[in-house]
Amino acid sequence: MDGNAPCHRTVAAEQLLESEDIERMDWPARSLDLNPIEHVWDFLGRPLAARTLPPVRIRELQLALQDEWAATPQQLIDTLILSMG
What we know:
Elements: H1 11-19, H2 36-50, H3 58-70, H4 74-83
Helix pairs in contact: 2-3, 2-4
């Protein structure tokens, strides 16, 4: 799911994937509509944009994203994972 970006193909990245027993999946490069992470960012971003006082500092954004992630229904995550198979 890295689109063959050079930074994702470094020796360190390959070693990490191997050490965690993570297999790469064949995936068309730059297929945003096929990339489940785009749906996650959309799901996280909508409530942030709807806030009366949106985060303006990096730390505020980090905390807000963590809050939204914690509130993400497990069913949504499961569905996105299953869509990758």
